Amino acid sequence: MLLSCAELQQVSRDIANSRSLSEQQVADGLQQALSKGVDKQVSKLTRENGFYSNPLVKIGLPEELSKIESTLRSLGLNNLADEGIKALNTAAQEAVEEATPIFLSAIQDMSFEDSKAILLGENTAATAYLREKTQIELYTKFEPIIKNNFQKADADQIWETLIEKYNQVPFTQNVNPDLTDYVTTQALKGVYKMIEQEEIEIRTNINERSTLLLKQVFALQD
């Protein structure tokens, strides 16, 4: 929930004047919260079928390929369509393992001013901070891994077969999308989505504040 200007000023005074919490403790509390969210949620995505079984982040087909799926299913090729979609999600799942150290580096670089802006910001302010600080680096890290995973898992062959079969269907327009870029972008969206969910939970659910410092810091924004 957004705070009014008066409430923001009061919380800012509380942080500045609090004898129980130093600026460093406020920063440490935010870093704890972000580290907790990253560790918990990224690890969920790296489990077997971490993307494929999670409706929040499951990677479907790009619009250009959605007609392939419907055409294959209309021809009774449901298994082939499912196999193609699962291959996309598996490639993303393995790439996300590289995310945690990049996130933790961004968290460690957080200043007190960053921490205060996050604490006084919207319920997803910390996620927005991480997106700004990590998105380019994560894309650069994910893209070659996803490309390699496509080859390793034969996903490139699966989709080459699917696209070839679709392009042979009469009266259809040939397609040839860049699946590596698409899955990399969707994997990033999935990671930030899961961290966003964790941030909202910590901000709104007192029981999610697992340490005394988290309780003290987030009490300032309650």
Main beta-sheet strand count, sense and barrel state: none
Radius of gyration, rounded?
21 Å
N-C termini distance: 9 Å
Compute the average pLDDT.
79
Q: Fraction of residues in helices?
A: over 70%
Give the class from helix and strand content and strand pairing. mainly alpha
Shape: elongated
Q: In what range is the share of β-strand residues? A: under 5%
**Overall tally of structural domains:** 1
Helix-strand pattern, N to C?
A: HHHHHHHHHH
**Topology, number of strands:** 0
Please render the helix and strand layout as text:
Elements: H1 5-17, H2 23-46, H3 63-74, H4 78-95, H5 99-108, H6 112-119, H7 125-152, H8 155-167, H9 179-204, H10 212-219
Helix pairs in contact: 2-5, 2-6, 2-9, 2-10, 3-4, 4-7, 4-8, 4-9, 5-7, 7-9
Describe, in plain words, how this protein is organized in 3D:
The protein is mainly alpha-helical. It has one domain. Helix content is 72%, strand content 0%. The chain has ten helices and no strands. α2 (23-46) runs antiparallel to α5 and α2 packs across α9 (179-204). The radius of gyration is 21 Å and the shape is elongated. The model is unreliable at 1-19 (pLDDT under 50).
